[in-house]
Specification:
With about 260 residues, this protein is an alpha/beta fold. It has two domains: about 110 residues, Cobalt-precorrin-4 Transmethylase, domain 1, CATH 3.40.1010; about 110 residues, 2-Layer Sandwich (Methyltransferase, Cobalt-precorrin-4 Transmethylase, Domain 2), CATH 3.30.950.10. Helices cover about 45% and strands about 20% of the residues. The chain contains eleven helices and ten strands. The strands form two sheets. The chain has a five-stranded parallel β-sheet, with helices on both faces. Strands 6-7-10-8-9 form a five-stranded mixed β-sheet, with helices on both faces. Helix 7 packs antiparallel against helix 8. The protein is elongated, with a radius of gyration of 23 Å. The structure holds S-adenosylmethionine. The site of S-adenosylmethionine has 23 residues, from helix 5, strand 7 and strand 10.
């Protein structure tokens, strides 16, 4: 049996009962970083008095996962195997999906325990609602980063990004240069002592944060391009379809005729 087990993203008390039980019952612990899981087990046993005695703790990360899976037999999972990434949900901007696919291919029973994830916590903290897309990290630099950011900024739904602290200001500046007033929500150090939330236009947040201490972990939620918000608002209006089509044509590339056709 394989279990993907989420771990806290900062606050130790966010470990779930099921996660504790799974860690306690694990014969084999696969960990993104064995030092991180050992430290976590130590802190958890101090806090909850629980004993963890896995027979083995093995390293399973982005760079060895393929080799690892090529070198085991499906019977490896006859014992209780738990996978933990460094923090939060495995498989969310972390390894985990390869293990799930291995289990699916080889008919190995598996469970995914729900738990903390920075993307979800940040989206809920933003107060935005509706659809969103998780883009994880942008490419770090160059043309690839610029292209991806453009895609994100023209995306019709809310976009969630992870960003390293040393690139956060760069990101805010890049967004400001394209769309100064684009509203953003920033979540810093979720669940930790210095948790902070910021909401405002890209230009405004850049000015506000450029002289602040931005060390720590960040999630950036980007609101959809104004055009999309306008479309949604117009669609909700209680006015004749012809008028609606006229208004929609003004804020989009589609003609009045095309809009009218799709409205009826
Ligand atoms: N698997 C994790 C999850 O479920 O959220 C994400 C792992 S990803 C490699 C690490 C990134 O997640 C960080 O660089 C940061 O952008 C974000 N992150 C993780 N913990 C966070 C926290 N406590 N507050 C804000 N962002 C966090």
């Amino acid at each position: 049996m394989l279990r993907l087990v989420p771990t806290p993203i900062g606050n130790l008390e966010d470990i779930t009962f099921r996660a504790l039980k799974a860690l306690k019952e694990a014969d084999i612990l696969l960990a993104e970083d064995t030092r991180v899981i050992k430290r976590l087990l130590h802190l958890l046993s101090q806090k909850y008095g629980t004993e963890f005695n896995p027979k083995k703790i093995l390293s399973f990360h982005e760079h060895n996962q393929h080799r690892f899976l090529e070198n085991i037999e499906p019977s490896f999972f006859d014992s209780s195997v738990v996978y933990v990434s460094d923090a939060g949900m495995p498989g969310i901007s972390d390894p985990g999906s390869e293990l799930v696919r291995y289990a699916q291919t080889h008919g190995i029973p598996y469970e995914v325990l729900p738990g903390p994830s920075a993307a979800i916590a940040a989206f809920v903290a933003s107060g935005y609602e509706g659809e969103f897309t998780f883009f994880a990290f942008l490419p770090h630099k160059g043309e690839q980063r610029a292209v991806k950011l453009k895609e994100v900024l023209s995306h019709p739904y809310h976009s969630i990004l992870y960003e390293a602290p040393h690139r956060l200001l760069k990101l805010l500046k890049e967004i400001r240069d394209i769309d100064e007033n684009r509203e953003l929500f920033l979540a810093k150090e979720l669940t930790k002592k210095y948790e902070r939330f910021y909401k405002g236009g890209a230009g405004e947040l850049y000015e506000r944060l450029k002289d602040e201490n931005i060390k720590g972990e960040w999630v950036v939620v980007i609101t959809p391009a104004k055009k999309e918000a306008d479309i949604e608002a117009i669609l909700k209006l209680d006015i004749p379809k012809k008028e609606k089509a006229k208004m929609l044509a003004k804020v989009t590339d589609k003609s009045i005729k095309e809009w009218y056709k799709s409205l009826i």
